[in-house]
C-alpha cells in the first residue's frame, strides 16, 4: 500500500504545468504518443516531498496542454529494481507501449553510494497498466570499463533495428554515453561509446539522461552532465544540460560534434527528454527544478514540476526551443494588446497564469521583470547593448546568468504561479526559473527601442 504524501497548501501549485498530485518528482520519462494520447511519465516518490525509492508517475493528454493524472505505472521492489525504477523512455511496437528503464539496486541498504544498475522493459496494451518483462534485466550490467553509473536508456528505431543510448561514467571518471542495439528489445548487443567527456572538470564525471535524435538532417545529443566547473559566462548552474550537434559516423558509431553548448541558461532545468510527435515536430519536456536547490513547496507536501512542452528547431547551428503552439488552447482572454509602446509598460497578473509576447526588433536596451507588490524583482531579464549581453538576475542568487546576443527580436514569457520560462529571439536563448512568493505579481517592460509591442493572455488551467 502506498502511503501518499498530502498537499497541505496550494500557494505554489501550478495551473498548467505537469506536476504530481502530491509527493516528489524529478526527470520526465517515457514521453511518447500511443493510441491517441501523449504520455508523459516522471521520476516519482509518492510518499513524501523528498527524493526516495523511485516510481514512475504518469499523466496523459490529447493536446499537450490538458493533462489527466493516471495511476503509478512502475513500482520498484522486484529483484532487478529493488531500490528504484530510474529514468528511461518509451516506444510503441506492434500496438503496445514499451517502457525501458533502469533498475537501481543497493549492495548495502545503508550505503546509497554502493549500487548496481541494469536496464529493464515493461509493456502495456492499454497505456495505463504495465507489466514488467520476465526477461528482465534485458541488459544486466555495463561493459567492463564502466563505473557503476549506467542508467537512463533512451530508445529509438532506426534502419530496421532498435538502438538505445545509456548515460554512463567510465572507470577514469569521465562522463559518456553508450550505445546498444537490438532487433527484439530483449537481446541487446553493445555498440560502444557514442561520445565521452574530454575531462571531468570541463565536461562532467557522469552524463545522465542522454537523448539522441535527428533534426533537420543533423544528429543531436542532449544530456545532463554533472561536475562541470563554471567557466566565465558558462556553466553557472549547479548542474547543466548540454547539447552536441553533429553527425554520427556510420562506421565508428561515434558522434562528431562542433561544440559543447548549454540548452537552457536558467537555474531550474535538468534531464529533458524529447519525442517525435505524429505531425513530425520534435517536442521536449524538462524537469523544471535542479538537484540540491531550495524547493519551498516541500513544506506543502509536494516538490517538482515539468517545463511547459517545447518544440525544438534549428536556427543555423543553434538548437532553439519555443512553447508548443497548443498553448493557444489555454488562452482565456487578452490581458494586454498594445502595439505602439515607448519607454515603459507595466501590468498586473491576476491569476499569475500569463503568456506574454513582446516584440522589440531592436539593438537598444530592453528589460522585462516579474516583480511583486513590494517591488521585489523575482526574475529580471535585461539586454545590455554595450556589453552585447543578455543578463538574467534572480531574487535568490547573486550570480547573474549572461549570454552573448547582439539584438532583441522578441521575448516570450510564461508565468505560472511559481515558475517563469523565458524564450528570447524565437527560442534561441531560454531560461527556466522557479520563484516562490505569495504576493501578487506584475510584469514590467522597459526599453529604449523606438516602439515595441506587447500582447499578454490570461491562461486557464491545464492540470
Ligand atoms: C537525473 C537522475 C537520473 C536517474 C534519476 C533518479 O536527474 O539522476 O540519472 O535515473 O535522476 O531519480
Q: What does it look like?
A:
With 463 residues, the protein is mostly beta strands. The chain has one helix at residues 200-203, and strands at residues 23-34, 37-45, 55-61, 68-74, 85-93, 96-106, 115-124, 131-132, 146-158, 161-170, 175-182, 189-196, 206-215, 218-226, 242-248, 255-257, 261-262, 270-276, 282-287, 302-303, 310-315, 318-323, 331-348, 353-362, 366-372, 377-384, 389-394, 397-404, 408-416, 419-424, 429-434, 441-459. The strands form six sheets. Strands 23, 24, 25, 26, 27, 28, 29, 30, 31 and 32 form a ten-stranded antiparallel β-sheet that branches. Helices cover 1% and strands 56% of the residues. The model has no long low-confidence stretch (mean pLDDT 97). The chain contains one helix and 32 strands. It is globular. Residues 26-27, 43, 54, 86-87, 102, 151-152, 167, 208-209, 270-271 line the site of beta-D-fructofuranose.
In helices, the fraction of residues equals under 10%
Given helix and strand content, the structural type is: mainly beta
How would you sum up the major sheet? 10 strands, antiparallel
- Rg to the nearest angstrom? 22 Å
Averaged pLDDT: 97
| Tally of separate helices | 1
User: What general form does the structure show?
Assistant: globular
Work out the number of β strands: 32
**Contiguous uncertain segments of 5+ residues:** none
Strand portion:
over 45%
Distinct small molecules: beta-D-fructofuranose
N-to-C CA distance: 25 Å
Record keyword descriptors for this entry.
1 helix; 10-stranded antiparallel β-sheet; 5-stranded mixed β-sheet; 32 strands; binds beta-D-fructofuranose; mainly beta
Amino acid at each position: 500500500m502506498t502511503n501518499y504524501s498530502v498537499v497541505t497548501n496550494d500557494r505554489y501549485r501550478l495551473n498548467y504545468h505537469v506536476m504530481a498530485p502530491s509527493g516528489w518528482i524529478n526527470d520526465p520519462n517515457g514521453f511518447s504518443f500511443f493510441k491517441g494520447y501523449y504520455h508523459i511519465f516522471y521520476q516519482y516518490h509518492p510518499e513524501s516531498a523528498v527524493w526516495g525509492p523511485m516510481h514512475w508517475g504518469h499523466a496523459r493528454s490529447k493536446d499537450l496542454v490538458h493533462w489527466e493524472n493516471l495511476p503509478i505505472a512502475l513500482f520498484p521492489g522486484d529483484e532487478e529494481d529493488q531500490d528504484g525504477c530510474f529514468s528511461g523512455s518509451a516506444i510503441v511496437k506492434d500496438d503496445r507501449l514499451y517502457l525501458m528503464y533502469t533498475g537501481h539496486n543497493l549492495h548495502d541498504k545503508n550505503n546509497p553510494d554502493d549500487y548496481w544498475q541494469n536496464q529493464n522493459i515493461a509493456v502495456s496494451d492499454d497505456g495505463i497498466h504495465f507489466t514488467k518483462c520476465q526477461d528482465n534485466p534485458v541488459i544486466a550490467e555495463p561493459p567492463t570499463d564502466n563505473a557503476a553509473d549506467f542508467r537512463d536508456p533512451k530508445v529509438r528505431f532506426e534502419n530496421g533495428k532498435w538502438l538505445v543510448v545509456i548515460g554512463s561514467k567510465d572507470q577514469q571518471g569521465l562522463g559518456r554515453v553508450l550505445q546498444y542495439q537490438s532487433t527484439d528489445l530483449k537481446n541487446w548487443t553493445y555498440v560502444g561509446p557514442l561520445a565521452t567527456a574530454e575531462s571531468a572538470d570541463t565536461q562532467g564525471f557522469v552524463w545522465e539522461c542522454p537523448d539522441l535524435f535527428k533534426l533537420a538532417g543533423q544528429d543531436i545529443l542532449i544530456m545532463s552532465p554533472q561536475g562541470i566547473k563554471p567557466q566565465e559566462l558558462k556553466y553557472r548552474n549547479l548542474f547543466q544540460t548540454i547539447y552536441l550537434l553533429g553527425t554520427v559516423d556510420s562506421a565508428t558509431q561515434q558522434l562528431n560534434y562542433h561544440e559543447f553548448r548549454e540548452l537552457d541558461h536558467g537555474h531550474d532545468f535538468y534531464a529533458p527528454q524529447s519525442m517525435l510527435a505524429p505531425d513530425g515536430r520534435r517536442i521536449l519536456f524538462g524537469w523544471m527544478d535542479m538537484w540540491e536547490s531550495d524547493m519551498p513547496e516541500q513544506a506543502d507536501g509536494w516538490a517538482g514540476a515539468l517545463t511547459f512542452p517545447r518544440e525544438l528547431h534549428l536556427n543555423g547551428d543553434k538548437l532553439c526551443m519555443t512553447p508548443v503552439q497548443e498553448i493557444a488552447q489555454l488562452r482565456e482572454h487578452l490581458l494586454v494588446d498594445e502595439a505602439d509602446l515607448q519607454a515603459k509598460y507595466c501590468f498586473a497578473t491576476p491569476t499569475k497564469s500569463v503568456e506574454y509576447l513582446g516584440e522589440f526588433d531592436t539593438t537598444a536596451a530592453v528589460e522585462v521583470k516579474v516583480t511583486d507588490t513590494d517591488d521585489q524583482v523575482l526574475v529580471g531579464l535585461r539586454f545590455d547593448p554595450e556589453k552585447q549581453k543578455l543578463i538574467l538576475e534572480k531574487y535568490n542568487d547573486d550570480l547573474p546568468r549572461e549570454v552573448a546576443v547582439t539584438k532583441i527580436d522578441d521575448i516570450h514569457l510564461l508565468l505560472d504561479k511559481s515558475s517563469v520560462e523565458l524564450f528570447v529571439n524565437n527560442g534561441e536563448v531560454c531560461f527556466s526559473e522557479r520563484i516562490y512568493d505569495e504576493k501578487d505579481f506584475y510584469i514590467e517592460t522597459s526599453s529604449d527601442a523606438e516602439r515595441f509591442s506587447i500582447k499578454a493572455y490570461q491562461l486557464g488551467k491545464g492540470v
